[in-house]
Amino acid sequence: MQIFSVEGNTQRLDGGAMFGNCPRALWAGWAPPDDQNRIRLACRSMLVREDSGRHVLIETGIGAFFEPKLRERFGVQEPEHVLLRALAELGVQPADIDVIVLSHLHFDHAGGLLTAWSNEQPPQPPQLAFPRARYVVSAPAWQRAIKPHPRDRASFIPGLQDMLLATGRLEQVEGASSTTLGPAYSFSYSDGHTPGLMLTRVEGPAGPVTFLGDLVPGVPWVHLPITMGYDRYPELLIDEKEALLARIVAEQGWAFYTHDPEVAASRVTRSPQGRFAAGESLAQVRWS
């Protein structure tokens, strides 16, 4: 198979929210804020092109479905659907995507499923952008999306779950594997950020690679104590992160980051004192 990092729309979000109780004096050195205290964030996907010709897309980023007012509120920088352009540069059209895997259904990970907002009159609501895709999501993450808690209700896209269900091509996963994907893909789970966050491990040509989603959104969060203000159970998340990073170290695998603006993937190291750090880093992934 071949594996590619694929850039999507970028965001600027409040640095304090992204770094939880970490002091600004520390996190500002890792992610310099702008004059509104916002830091740069990627919304990066991972594309797997199998030898059979099947295309598997792991996440879709935030996309461009927001109307201009909401696009500004959530710091989305580009009005166009950047993911679709980036896929086209790899010779992949929306109809070529066979399977889409979602770690969870927050809008900055699932918004790219939808077509871009248009100012046509009368306004046309966004539609699913990938006409043939099958969708894979964990059962707990699906339940959270259809019955959200007030704390994160605004993080879900109204109507998206109904659209996915109506395709008849949705698999809700509860274990370590997916009948849709097959044996080259496996899952681990985390509840610290949101219930049923599903982290996909792929047996790739450069070794195993794990899509870390919001468990470890970028290199600064590899450091165990660093969590986001958006995380529901930070202490649980730290325990989950330690276990998963230890596995990546042990198998000499790769960590794939969705939100890091500079680093798409890295090795992970662990010091004798138990401190994790990003090792060899790649700005983009092109493995074959």
Could you characterize the architecture of this molecule?
- The protein is an alpha/beta fold.
- It contains eight helices and 15 strands.
- The strands form three sheets. A seven-stranded mixed β-sheet has the order 8-7-6-5-4-1-15. The chain has a six-stranded mixed β-sheet with strand order 9-10-11-12-13-14.
- Strand 11, helix 8 and strand 12 form a beta-alpha-beta unit.
- The longest helix is centred in the C-terminal third of the chain and has 17 residues.
- The radius of gyration is 18 Å and the shape is globular.
- The termini are close together.
- The relative contact order is 0.16.
- The mean pLDDT is 97.
Structural class: alpha/beta
Q: Runs with pLDDT <50, length 5+?
A: none
Radius of gyration: 18 Å
Beta-strand percentage range: 15-25%
Spatial strand order of the main sheet: 8-7-6-5-4-1-15
How would you sum up the global shape? globular
Order of helices and strands: EEHHEEEHHEHEHHEEEEHEEEE
Instruction: State mean pLDDT (0 to 100 scale).
Output: 97
Describe the main β-sheet briefly: 7 strands, mixed
Tell me the distance between the termini. 6 Å
State the share of residues found in helices, binned by percent: 10-25%
DSSP, total strands: 15
Write the layout of secondary structure elements.
Elements (H helix, E strand, L loop, with lengths): L1 E5 L4 E4 H5 L4 H7 L7 E4 L3 E5 L5 E4 L9 H6 L8 H8 L9 E3 L5 H4 L23 E5 H8 L13 H8 L2 E4 L11 E6 L6 E8 L2 E5 L22 H17 L3 E3 L8 E6 L5 E7 L3 E2 L1
